[in-house]
Design goal:
By secondary structure, this protein is mainly α. It has one domain. It has 2 helices and no strands.
């Protein structure tokens, strides 16, 4: 009976070790994907803010006045 227990214990620890390695690699992959998506989200947020600043510059009243002032008057 003790030989059976020894084999069972060895099998159990081997299975636990394999499971731990599997879970660790899965965790690393999930962490990598999470960081990749976070970096892309930060980049998109930065792009959005840049576009927003450009849009605000286009609709700024002083900018519109400058553009209208640069145009030649319409002759009637």
């Amino acid at each position: 009976m003790s030989r059976f227990r020894f084999v069972f214990v060895i099998f159990f620890f081997t299975a636990i070790s394999i499971l731990a390695v599997y879970l660790r690699s899965t965790e690393d992959q999930a962490f990598y994907l999470l960081r990749k998506e976070k970096a892309e989200q930060d980049w998109l947020t930065q792009e959005l803010r840049s576009k927003q600043i450009q849009l605000e510059n286009l609709i700024n009243p002083s900018t519109i006045s400058e553009r209208l002032g640069d145009q030649e008057p319409i002759e009637q």
